[in-house]
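Predicting holo structure, guanosine-5'-triphosphate bound.
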Amino acid sequence: MTRFVTAPDAGAPAPGADARSALGWMHTARFLTTAAQLNQLPAVEVPEIAFVGRSNAGKSTCINTLTQQKQLAFASKKPGRTQHINLFSLGRQGQTDAVLADLPGYGYAAVSRSDKVRWQQVMVNYLVSRPSLTGIVLLCDPRLGLTELDEALLEVVRPRVEEGLKFLVLLTKADKLTRAEQAKALSIARLQAGGGEVKMFSALKKQGVEEVAQLLWQWAHPAPAPSADADTAPAPSPAPEAGPG
Ligand SMILES: Nc1nc2c(ncn2[C@@H]2O[C@H](COP(=O)(O)OP(=O)(O)OP(=O)(O)O)[C@@H](O)[C@H]2O)c(=O)[nH]1
Ligand SMILES: [Mg+2]
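Done. Tokens:
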């Protein structure tokens, strides 16, 4: 079983990240760029949060739901719809304080073997080496559960998660499950995720939307760590104006 580590306080809302402001922030999302290859992606100076998972898991739909925009990301009944890494900027007043990345799904049977291998390489490189990558949302259809490919992805990112990369497993299409099935799927996925954070989500019923928006806001705006020199004297105030004479 794949095990990975998340920060113990991963679920606690950051100060000020009430549901309304988190959703308002998500709604500022706009298209930034699209790239077929890693070296075509622009360097990003702000936290980047990637949506990954099997083809058809609901990644693009999840981004549209969280950002409350119908067609920001390309969603489709046909698996394999997303074929590029698409980046979206977030932030008020034209400022960018975070970036969302919609990644093509894996595990789509109708793709040729060479295309699969090429894409797996791009994705592994992205997950291992993208400097701005701050958090990963792994989307998973709970009717399939975490598959071998999902487990392989967990394995790839584990060293970065241990170094503080944020991680959330989102079980999508919750509307297809009864309450009892949801509870069961959650506990199975929590075991598979080795204690990592797992949530239920439904784009159709808007289930989990506020919670996820708040969590992503928190990922992008972590509380500042107590500074190492916090116990030293405060910076001197500006010298008073010299008097006449
Ligand atoms: N019932 C239901 N259907 C959903 C939900 N989320 C996504 N879907 C459907 O699942 C299908 C795939 O959704 P996408 O968002 O395109 O999936 P994707 O993970 O981006 O797929 P790729 O781009 O191929 O990797 C579409 O038909 C969506 O309408 C949900 O919460 N509930
Ligand atoms: Mg997609």
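The CA atoms of residues 115 and 121 lie 10 Å apart.
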